[in-house]
Amino acid sequence: MELDALEETGLTRNEAKTYLALLRLKQSRITELALKTGLHARNVYDSLNKLIERGLTSVSFEGRVKVFRAENPAKLRELLVEKTKKLDSVLPEMLSSFKEEKPVREISILRGAEGFTLMAQGMGESADKRGVAVYAPHDLSPLMEETQRIKLRKLFGVLKEKKSFMRVIHADSKKARTNAAVLDKGFEKHITRKYAKGLSNKPIAWSSAGNTVFINFFTKNDMLIVRIRSEDVATAFMESFEILWKAAE
Fold first, then answer.
1. For residue 147, what pLDDT is reported?
2. Which of 5, 115, 161, 209 is deepest in the core (most CB within 10 A)?
3. What is the pTM (predicted TM-score) of this model?
4. Could you report the per-residue pLDDT of 131-157, keeping only the tens digit for each?
5. In which element (H, E) is residue 170 found?
6. How far apart are CA 34 and CA 248, in angstroms?
7. Tell me, what's the pLDDT at 139?
């Protein structure tokens, strides 16, 4: 376990073995370390040189013989901090490249509980000044299971934190209004719902957030979600939603 933890800091397996052995011996010569670690003396020597470079080991002389000592293991934390700083220095450019290289139009199929989680997270991440638009011609029954409610309310919390919002259109029914009241409790300022008369209850919904569209198909025991990442497609869905929003009550 200690070896694995040391390797996570960037040490090789041999370096980790050598450092742990030296830490327990307090000080040692190469021959003793080779016996303690089971490594060839040459491998121990190479590992010690690397450990000296990292500030984890020091060397002194007793006559002509080199004696090695382990330095404070707190230095390992400093090594991790240094690695993090190096990563932080290049991460902005890497993230910029990642965003620039995204395909103009990307279509994915999500399914089940994990798919619903990815959809909720995607809505929160993609929400912009236009908010999230949802067309859901059903009474919210597919979303009233505890796991779904928790994920939705977590999304509402993200929208609140981002000072964004959600607008939803439903088929008009008493059950839809009752379920909505349960889901929205505490987030009423960020969730606005309208109810369209004449819509029949259908196991389907779609939503638009930023440059992403989600199309949901509900079945009795499963959920299928089509995710489309495309600025022009998302804009088309949002424009259609605005027409429906004006017509709903």
1. 87
2. 209
3. 0.58
4. 999 999 888 887 888 888 899 999 999
5. strand 166-171
6. 79
7. 85
- On the question of pLDDT at 118 being above 70, the answer is yes
Q: Give, for 147, the enclosing helix (H) or strand (E).
A: helix 146-161
CA distance 212 to 107: 10
pLDDT at position 103 over 60: no
DSSP state of 145: S
Asked if residue 212 lies in contact with residue 228, where contact means CB atoms within 8 angstroms, the answer is yes
Confidence at residue 1, expressed as pLDDT on a 0 to 100 scale? 63
Assigned fold of 2-72: Arc Repressor Mutant, subunit A (1.10.10)
Dig out the tokens for 108 from the structure: 């994915």
One-letter amino acid identity for 93?
A: E
Cα–Cα distances (Å) from 235 to 166, 207, 215, in that order, read 16, 11, 15
Tokens describing residue 116: 């619903």
The residues, ordered by sequence, that sit 6+ positions from 232 with a Cβ below 8 Å of its Cβ are none
Burial of 1 (0-12, 13-18, 19+ CB in 10 A): exposed
End-to-end CA distance of the chain: 62
* C-alpha span between 249 and 245 (Å, rounded): 8
Q: What are the boundaries of each domain within the chain?
A: 2-72, 103-247
- The CATH superfamily label for domain 103-247 reads Endonuclease Chain A (3.30.870.10)
CB atoms within 10 A of CB 178: 12
Average pLDDT score, the chain = 86
Joined tokens for residue 53: 């470079």
What pLDDT does residue 203 have? 86
